[in-house]
Amino acid sequence: MTWLDAYEMAGSDGDLGALLAFNSTHLDGYRQHGAAQTNSLTAKLRWYAPAGRLRLSFNAIDNRAEDPGGLTAAQVDVDRRQAAPNNLRFDADEFIRQQRLALVWDGYAAGADQYQLRSYLGHREFGNQLGFATSGQTTFKRYFSGVGGQYSHYRELIGVPHKITTGFDLEAQQDDRRRYDNLFGERGQLRQQQDESALSQGLFIEDQINLTEQWQATLGLRYDHVRLAVDDLYLVDSRDDSGSRSLADWNYSAGLSYRLTPQQSLYARLASSFETPTINELANPQGGGFNAVLQPAQAVSRELGLKGEWTSLRYALALYRIDLKDELVAFNLPTQPGRNFYRNAGQSRRDGVELSLDWQLDDAWRWSVAYAYNHYRFTEYQTSAGDFAGKHSPGIPRQTLFTELAYENQGAYIRLGATAQARVYTNDANTQSASGYALLNLRLGKRLQLGEQSLEPYLGIDNLLGREYFDNLRINDGSARYFEPGPERTLYAGLRLLF
């Protein structure tokens, strides 16, 4: 059973607007040792001034969840609802507490020029217990912050209108990370203590060019520099794993669009990208410090699309190809189940088609659909376990589909939705997979007006037909515990109160 509670208060007075929302979700858990609770608080404040707009936002979350762990295919056949034995023995679970405050100013400059200044800061506490003893508990305290800005200048060059935007991003993160032995749910000996830091700096420029009334071009260039450092404070092992890495790259983007009609346009894009491993992804499988051999992923993407928008109909169609070098691939070790490490795949290719449609059939009926075809595979990839060139990327279904038919009249609504996906491989070798599935979901509710307050009770059933499926897969699990069965039929109820 799932319970959801939502309370929201919003209003405005002249140039000032505010929103305050609280959400709470309680899950009994379909599987043994699978209960979870999530609470979130969101506050937003907007102020409109003659010189611009100020936005202040605050978000806080408190998540706690038991971890039933992954199962082997044989264990799934015996009992889909069981927890992994070691996850019970070691009382596997995790908690996350995070607060984030952000401030954004959108300003008006001379003429039609615009600018934006933005900043944020936050704090996160994390702790978990995994299903093994040595270093089976992790905690970290994280402080993160960032500032950025951009300026958009409109001018005419050689008789052609341009919108030139330049800007910067500066972000920092500091972690105090510790690992302890997990003594069947109790904290044991300290095994690792290190301070981790990340500093990211970026500069960018983009030019939007209105070539004609129908043709528009976009050109962009960005430079990023990331410095990652670790200070090893655990010297009991007589080894200092302190160190740092600096990663930098230039990336480009180019786009061209043509307006077929006032409602439809055709576009093409070409871009490169640069993805550095996060501090978590740089975890060293051999112990403390960073994984020295892990490299950033680089990609070149091409996209061709068609989109249109009318009063009652919106659609989009896109075809794309992405060529990747050193794609980051997750795996874990049999001795440390549930803890992910990362390695690079030499070369990968992703081809796909995406289609979306949103159609307001009449005043009461609405139909939406989203479909994707994904042909993701490795083209050059070798590990000590073998050569995986030509294998499909694990964790990515070949096809996915979502569709929903909704009816709403006088505040009452009913929504019938379906989600479906094809088979998913669970490891790089493509030797095991999770079968595809299709699920039906139903939700109904009623919005009631009580003076200045609005009350919305709602009731829903997920997986209406009780199909068997997996709602999560643990890719490249070292003990072949890939599968986390999803609930068969879930009833949930909630109440949303708007002041």
TrEMBL record:
Domain of life assignment: Bacteria
Cross-referenced Gene3D superfamilies: TonB-dependent receptor, beta-barrel domain (2.40.170.20)
Q: Which Pfam families match?
A: TonB_dep_Rec_b-barrel (PF00593)
Q: Please report, in chain numbering, the residue ranges of the motif TonB C-terminal box.
A: 482-499
| PROSITE patterns (alphabetical) | TONB_DEPENDENT_REC_2, TONB_DEPENDENT_REC_3
Task: Give the UniProt subcellular location, in the record's own words.
Answer: Cell outer membrane
Tell me which UniProt keywords the record has, alphabetically.
Answer: Cell outer membrane, Ion transport, Iron, Iron transport, Membrane, Receptor, Signal, TonB box, Transmembrane, Transmembrane beta strand, Transport
The family database entries (InterPro entries) matched by this protein are listed as:
Beta-barrel_TonB, Beta-barrel_TonB_sf, TonB-dep_rcpt-like, TonB_rcpt_CS
Coiled-coil boundaries: none
Task: Give the TonB-dependent receptor-like beta-barrel domain ranges.
Answer: 37-464
Q: What main location does UniProt list?
A: membrane
Q: How does it sit in the membrane?
A: Multi-pass membrane protein
The family note in this entry says: Belongs to the TonB-dependent receptor family.
Q: Which PANTHER family match?
A: FERRICHROME IRON RECEPTOR-RELATED, FERRICHROME OUTER MEMBRANE TRANSPORTER_PHAGE RECEPTOR
| Name listed for the protein in its UniProt record | TonB-dependent receptor
